[in-house]
Design brief:
Layout: H1 2-41, H2 51-58, H3 62-88, H4 97-124, H5 133-141, H6 147-171, H7 173-177, H8 186-220, H9 229-235, H10 242-266
Length: 273
């Protein structure tokens, strides 16, 4: 019985360490997207600024492939962590409206990064990244009765997800939960608070626009309305002062990257209450 308990404790610790590694992986993804977006805003037409392109770029050399293997493990850990959060409710969110909204956030995050991990695994095994999954399932759903309403529902869920990310940034709840060292100076605390605010608002804006385009695609019955992150960032160049908007987005993703690394170090992860 003692051995079983020790094994369970080690398993929980393993999940927590994998989750911590997943924040490092997310930091790398956001940071590289930021770099690609900066390059695009300054006139370069190289790599597309999205997470799948980051994975493709890592395949170019041996070191990148090793990093990609570690990211597959970390993203799998992130998915497992989200399942644990939904099941165990370690942060005591409960089953009220806020608790359900947080669980929805965990579920969508888990699905998103599980898909990304699967794409990374396909690249490592030489199968390629495969077709655009989002556009593919939208196309299939539009072919069945009531499929458009299901897509609209998913779009609304994305809008709710965006709202939760904006709330995290504006309220500073995630930042306030960091277990920073007692000797941390005021400048570090202020900087991390700003990273949290700008980063979560940038992600919220991306999710909000993605959700809107899903709804638009369902209403128009046209899967070509489905947009990925790079589509949204490229579209910004057509706005007044578009390159400046792209630079602001790049800065937002960079700050989100730094905050993810801070979470990997100081966020109080726990798999059980």
């Amino acid at each position: 019985m003692i051995a079983t308990s020790e094994l369970k404790d080690k398993s929980i610790q393993g999940i927590e360490w994998l989750a911590r590694g997943s924040y490092v992986a997310k930091g790398i993804l956001y940071g590289t997207i930021s770099l690609f977006t900066f390059e695009f805003a300054l006139g370069s037409r190289g790599a597309d600024p999205n997470r799948e392109e980051v994975l493709h770029q890592l395949m170019d050399n041996t070191l990148g492939q090793i990093l990609l293997c570690l990211m597959v493990l970390a993203l799998a850990g992130h998915t497992l962590w989200r399942i644990v959060e939904i099941w165990n409710d370690p942060y005591e969110k409960g089953w009220g409206p806020w608790g359900i909204l947080y669980r929805l956030n965990y579920l969508l995050s888990g699905i998103t990064y599980a898909g990304l991990g699967y794409t990374a695994l396909r690249l490592l095994t030489g199968q390629g990244s495969g077709p655009d999954a989002k556009k593919l399932w939208v196309t299939r759903l539009l072919q069945i009765d009531g499929g458009d309403w299901l897509i609209i529902s998913v779009g609304v869920i994305f809008l709710l997800w965006a709202g939760l990310q904006a709330y995290k940034g504006l309220s500073g709840k995630v930042y306030k939960s960091l277990e920073l060292p007692q000797e941390s100076n005021q400048y570090l605390c202020s900087f991390l608070r700003f990273c949290s605010l700008a980063g979560f608002l940038t992600v919220a804006a991306t999710l909000c626009i993605t959700g809107w385009y899903l709804i638009k695609g369902a209403l128009e019955k046209d899967p070509d309305w489905v947009r990925s992150t790079d589509d949204l960032l490229k579209a910004m160049e057509h706005l007044p002062g578009g390159w400046g908007v792209q630079l602001v987005a790049a800065l937002g993703f960079l700050l989100m990257s730094l905050f993810m690394l801070a979470m990997a170090r100081w966020f109080p992860l726990k798999a059980v209450d």
